Amino acid sequence: MAVRHRLIRISPSGVWAVLADGSRYADWVVGTSRSHAVRGQWPQLDAAIHYEVRLGPVHLGNETIVRRSEENAFLELEAHAGALGTARIALELRTWGDDCLVIVDEHPLRGAGGRLHNVAFETLIQLRHRAMLARLARLCESQGCATRSSDREAAAVGDVSGAGRA
What we know:
Blueprint: E1 2-8, H1 12-19, H2 25-28, E2 34-39, E3 48-55, E4 58-70, E5 74-80, E6 86-96, E7 99-110, H3 112-116, H4 119-162
Helix pairs in contact: 1-4
């Protein structure tokens, strides 16, 4: 079972904002080139996203379905990978001070992926998770910097406007 974690310098709600935006799925999931909603409202239970994987001139379409969703805490997905079968991908968000500890746990469920799962395959998943969590951190932290900057600006404006009051 491939489990990896990363501390992201933003609150769990900031990370959730990225995870809950289905149009950004391909921005943080390694191997996908684009995505769009297929059914339901992402990330509600049983909502699905169609995503595309490009391997040179070959374009493969697959689907990811939400199997569990708890805002700011959990997102569990079932990713369909054609002939390779399906995989369970669980993302857990934990408050860690002002930050968010994101834990990714992935394992094959059905198909060839489960039958072929071994130490070498596990290593590839770990490398994929490292890249995926780095992408997610970049997206979240750049979004968080903008949010934190606007919060600081609003606080500064509030301080200035209240300075002359008795």
